[in-house]
Design brief:
By secondary structure, the chain is mainly α. It is built from 28 helices and 6 strands. The chain has a 4-stranded mixed sheet with strand order 3-4-6-5, with no helix packed on it. Helix 13 packs parallel to helix 25 and helix 22 runs antiparallel to helix 24.
């Protein structure tokens, strides 16, 4: 810049010496950015400062332009002085040419290649003789008449965006995807699920979380649905268990939505690995779904993370680790988030029509239907809640559209069509899945629940403050409180003391509106009251009417699982409080220099999340599953495996995944009459009555497992002779097989 200033000063002085003998009538105009315009008005826009016939006004105008250039380069005072000299001094035009030639190189530029007026050497502008002739002058001439000259200020603007090739654009797109919020949220949910459920994936082919009874049943369910949909879909509901009863796959929640996973792998080992992977993924989906719902409703990232972690890793859910159909609840908040996104609705910002998207709405209905296919244990309440939301939303929309505020509230034909088709699909899935269960209730009256069953599993109010034994933080401390509960596995319903505290704070300090906080509080209270079953004033005005009058409610046995909804509402209240707290931290940080939170403030915003995660730590056992007997890989069905009971039959179901042979064994939420009679008669096996009855049913083989007979009514079965009964006996590994 200093060099440019020197050149500007020297040039102005040279022009002053080369000026003609005319004396300016007045002082030179001030150096401004309009010097070029003034020159144009004189009728000589391209006349150089060295032209011999330059008038005083022209010289002054060009001097002003030089003064402007000098000002831009930091030498304004020197330029103005020389410009004044140029306007008052006189000289011959030939002297001007001689002086200009002495200060310039042969091509009309200064020694450094810059013209004296601040432009690149341009003979057309300077008027100097060009040894190359008129052709060069024409080539280097300025813009043609009628065209807009280049804006000199573009040099000070931002650089144009670079144009990348296809590989570079692909790399940048991948990079943006990897650092996107939802990519990071998904990865974080997966990592947290692996850590919080450890050691589930340590030995996935040998162990199961909690116990190997119900998890074995559910591992078989996934294997059966995947196998039969690939081989004979028409027989889906007639499983290989509970022979000869039909509709046996509907004897308990089916996890049918996991059937695609059941199509991968074969045999008990694959079933165990599949179960453990789905167990971890179910936790990850629950975290991601609750996070997405909180974000869609208007919570910040940390607040949404608190909602996701508290919803998934609430202490009471640790007692449900053996029930994959209860742990698999992530589709509920995810579907609600998608539906809210598709309708442009947020708890914090209200209805925003510009954010509507029919695709998101339809995807929300699909996720809701998939969640319903996992089971009615928690899906039933979800279906009724979703139906209520649709009904109330429609009434409010039409009321505001036509009655309260008769203004147009855009909805859109595509969104209406997406809701219509999605709602019909959701209803169709629910109806089709309900048919087998109603059929089972018709064929097996003993499968229906009674209010007496509900009373057995209804928790008292103290259950909301009691943690299960699987809680690492509260398990031992609450041992005494658990002993006071009639059936503590289904009555320890603590969602977390940290969550209680954050939700209580969210009632007073939150980003949610006051009425929304009250709605969430009402949701918490209603969910807790329903979760108490008949304990809340006998359930006269709460659970009992639902049990009697709403379809499906008489199939629920454990009302305490409705605590899932209270946990979700508490998490949303906590998310509002944490989001408001983080916003306050940002406001405080804005007053700092530099304006960003310090390490202690950052740690303070993460403290609620840390408390919720720590309170969800577990000591869940992971027992080793008994190995499959060799007889289960060779013996044909229909068959009976002894000893037989609810818990003993569930591993047998898992072992049958090698061949899926039909068998009388099976475990579910109730015991069919045929199976109960077989168990009673088989205590005397092998005797004539039991053999005759088994033959009538169509049973061909009976497998007796030696290592499981101890302590059961069948422990002396191997000592009974089979002479004269038409039965042959065979040793197969550790089992004894009776061929009927």
């Amino acid at each position: 810049m200093a060099g440019a200033a020197d050149r500007g000063t020297g040039t102005a002085g040279t022009r002053g010496k080369a000026a003609t003998g005319r004396v300016a009538d007045g002082p030179a105009p001030a150096a401004t950015a309009d010097a070029g315009a003034a020159t144009t008005e004189t009728g000589a826009p391209h006349a150089g400062p060295d032209a011999g016939a330059a008038t005083t006004e022209t010289a002054a105008a060009h001097a002003d332009a030089d003064a402007t250039a000098a000002t831009k380069t930091g030498a304004a005072d020197a330029a103005k002085t020389n410009a004044a000299d140029a306007a008052t001094k006189t000289g011959a035009g030939a002297a001007s040419d001689t002086t200009a030639a002495g200060d310039r190189s042969d091509d009309g530029t200064a020694d450094d290649g810059t013209a004296s007026d601040g432009t690149a050497g341009d003979p057309a502008r300077t008027g100097a003789a060009d040894p190359t002739g008129p052709a060069k002058a024409d080539d280097d001439a300025g813009p043609a008449e009628g065209t807009k000259p280049d804006d000199p200020f573009t040099a000070f603007g931002p650089a144009p965006d670079p144009v990348f090739g296809r590989p570079r654009r692909a790399v940048r797109a991948v990079g943006r995807f990897l650092v996107h919020e939802w990519t990071l949220a998904t990865v974080a949910a997966l990592v947290l699920a692996v850590l919080m459920t450890w050691p589930t994936l340590r030995y996935p082919a040998y162990t199961l979380p909690q116990d190997y009874w119900d998890p074995s049943l559910q591992a078989w369910q996934m294997a059966w649905s995947g196998h039969i949909l690939l081989t004979d879909p028409a027989q889906l509901w007639n499983s290989n268990t509970f022979f000869p009863d039909p509709w046996s796959f509907a004897f308990s929640d089916t996890l049918l939505g996991y059937a695609p996973a059941g199509m991968i792998g074969h045999g008990p080992d694959a079933a165990l690995v599949r179960y453990n992977i789905m167990f971890v993924l179910a936790h990850a989906l629950a975290t991601l779904g609750a996070y997405a719902l909180a974000r869609q409703l208007g919570a910040g990232r940390i607040g949404a993370a608190v909602a996701g972690a508290s919803y998934t890793y609430a202490p009471w859910l640790l007692a449900q680790a053996g029930h994959l159909h209860i742990v698999s609840n992530g589709g509920i908040p995810l579907a609600l988030a998608m539906l809210a996104r598709g309708h442009g609705w947020s708890l914090r910002y209200g209805y925003r029509p510009a954010r509507r998207h029919a695709g998101w709405a339809f995807a929300g209905w699909l996720v809701a239907a998939w969640q319903l296919s996992l089971g009615f244990g928690i899906g039933l309440m979800f279906a009724y809640l979703l139906g209520g939301i649709v009904l109330v939303s429609a009434l409010i929309w039409f009321a505001r559209r036509w009655v309260v505020r008769p203004v147009k509230r855009p909805f859109g034909g595509r969104l209406f069509l997406a809701d219509l088709l999605g709602g019909l699909l959701f209803g169709a899935v629910g109806a089709l899945l309900a048919v087998p269960f109603f059929k089972v209730a018709q064929l097996h009256p003993n499968a229906a629940r009674t209010l007496g069953d509900i009373a057995i599993y209804s928790p008292p109010a103290s259950g909301f403050l009691t943690a299960p034994a699987e809680s690492r933080v509260w398990g031992e401390l609450h041992e005494g409180a658990r002993t006071a509960l009639p059936w503590h596995p289904e009555m320890t319903l603590l969602p977390g003391y940290a969550l209680y505290a954050l939700a209580a704070g969210g009632l007073f300090f939150s980003v949610w509106r006051v009425r929304h906080r009250l709605y969430l509080l009402a949701g918490v209270l209603v969910s807790m009251i329903l979760a108490m079953g008949t304990r809340f004033f006998g359930g006269t005005w709460t659970f009992v009417p639902l049990f009697h009058y709403l379809p499906g409610w008489n199939g629920l046995r454990t009302p305490g699982r409705l605590m899932l909804w209270a946990t979700l509402f508490l998490g949303l209240l906590a998310a509002g409080a944490v989001t408001a707290f983080c916003a306050r931290v940002r406001e405080l940080a804005a007053e700092r220099v530099p304006p960003w939170p310090g390490p202690w403030l950052r740690l303070a915003t993460l403290l609620p999340l840390l408390l919720v995660v720590v309170e969800g730590l577990n000591v869940t056992p992971h027992p080793v599953v008994p190995q499959q007997p060799a007889a289960m890989r060779t013996v044909d069905g229909p068959m009976l495996v002894l000893p037989s009971s609810q818990n003993l039959d569930q591993p047998v179901m898992l072992w049958s995944t090698s061949r899926f042979q039909r068998m009388v064994n099976g475990g579910s939420g109730f015991t069919p009459e045929t199976q109960a009679k077989v168990r009673d008669l088989s205590v005397g096996f092998p005797d004539q009555p039991s053999i005759e009855y088994l033959r009538q049913l169509g049973v061909k083989n009976v497998v007796v497992l030696r290592n499981q007979l101890g302590g059961t009514p069948w422990e002396r079965i191997l000592d009974t002779p089979v002479d004269g009964l038409g039965v042959t006996r065979e040793e197969v590994g550790d089992a004894v097989v009776y061929h009927l």
